[in-house]
Amino acid sequence: MRSSFLTLVALTGHHTLTHAADISNLASTLQTLSTSIFPPLQSIATSVWSHPEIGLDEHYAHDLVIDYFTNTLPNVWDTITPQAFGLDTAWRLEFSTPSSTSSGDGDLPVIGFLAEYDALVGIGHACGHNQILLTALTAASLTRQALLDLGIPGRVVVLGTPDEENAAGKCLLRSQSGGAAYEGVDVWMMAHPTNANAVQPMNARVNAITDFRGASHEEAVRRAYGAMVAVRDLVTQGGLPGTSSSVVAVEEVGMFECNIVQGQISLGIRGVELDVVKQTVDGLLGGDDGTYPGVSFTAVADKDGKGVNVTALGPGGHASESTKGPLVLTVETFRALSGQDGVEFYLPGNTTLAELGVVFDIRSRYTQDLDLVLETVEAAIKGSSGGDSADITITTDTVYPALEVTPFLPDLFTSLLATPEYGSQTDFPISTFAPASTDAGCVQQAVVDPDSRKLVGSEKVVFHPNYNICDAANSGGKCAFNHEPGFATAAGTDYAYQRTEVIARALADVAVRLLNDPAVMANATAILA
Ligand SMILES: *[C@@H]1O[C@H](CO)[C@@H](O)[C@H](O)[C@H]1NC(C)=O
Ligand SMILES: *[C@@H]1O[C@H](CO)[C@@H](O)[C@H](O)[C@H]1NC(C)=O
Ligand SMILES: *[C@@H]1O[C@H](CO)[C@@H](O)[C@H](O)[C@H]1NC(C)=O
């Protein structure tokens, strides 16, 4: 570090102990820099938004970034690494100032920015990762230029991380590189677009992936729905262990796959009159059983299936995890009617399939509770099938560890946002509610006290604020949540890009403060073991 400098300054009797540059005009300097730096980077993000690619297939986004900094705007980054750490769509950019110091780059303070750019099957950038790419490129480029302009020594790294949604790309980068992907950088920053502002923790996550088979289509559907009823009972009867644990079923039909909020679900019912079906579903929707916010249904005679096609519409999955979405309405409809003799269930338009895949998306506030939640859900699924549980195979995917809020940076960031240069945003709370999951937990590697659940250490500092990109005033107050199709639209609006510019600029402001003053860096990294 620069301790020799500190000693020298201290000995010569200056009032300040640090050799920090004067950054009193930093916010306006960054504003000026952004007017030229941001627009071309926004064009990259817009192209990525228009060419959505799913995880591990982000070749267009990868090539766009590499090509831009290799050919269009060369000589910005000292090193540009395509296909970094053996992953085809990972990349890394690095810059140091001064680029050659006598003491070597190893002594320079370092800041890293994490980029994401994967989309969701069928619904494009419905998690807004085009904006995460833009945040990383903008914040890093602004930080770099500010270091140069203000004469602050430091190093900036940008890491392009593939597949946040499904394969836990940041975990993959860690294992693939033997940890090297995050080495040498103590503080990593990023920001995630959503429909509310907050610095908040993120849940641990794992998917239990099941495939229900039967001798007939109807039997497979009955088994799948039976399991979803059993898992719903866990939720409604408070049977999930851990803190704020949740489990949401995702039925693998149509374009809906794991991770995509299911806005429309159809269930076919045979052996019950149309009127009775309508009354039953109506009763569930309006019943004192709780609410289904924004959910509606249609029930029509289905000539092909010789039954009734009940279709529920509305926000689903994690958009309504604490309430009830369309799939829950069909699950409760199944529960209400399945006891009657001669009643059969099927998927309208799909009556020949003899298997039905369901993914149970399991989340819990703390990583250490996830195994127990998973076991509880697995037991309910197996128990739902009576003696046939041997037929059910349940596999799991990569665990996303919880992301904890590290102290210090949230206060610095939100206090900057409250100033005029960042739009005087006073509505940016630091909250304890975890709205979703992120693979950035694999970068942080938080250590939480088993009893108090307090953060006691971590391998890296990861700062990951969530920010609103929905222009509520101009969307009739309706803002889609991440993984709903409507969120892809929000992620491509001018409003979203303006929001990202401000957030990225504020992250750059934080980064420059960290690089400029060892005391600030020491506070930000105090949590590291
Ligand atoms: C029927 O199932 C197949 C395979 O899961 C799926 O691709 C298709 O979209 C489904 N169709 C409907 C109408 O659910
Ligand atoms: C079932 O009804 C929904 C809503 O009306 C419709 O979108 C869907 O195509 C229907 N399915 C079949 C197979 O007719
Ligand atoms: C670092 O943290 C200490 C203790 O909270 C505080 O007194 C000090 O002002 C902080 N320094 C900087 C530069 O942020």
TrEMBL record:
Keywords: Signal. Residues 1-20 form the signal peptide. Gene3D superfamilies: 3.30.70.360, Zn peptidases (3.40.630.10). GO terms for molecular function: dipeptidase activity. The keyword Signal applies. It comes from the Eukaryota. This is Amidohydrolase. It comes from Dichotomopilus funicola.
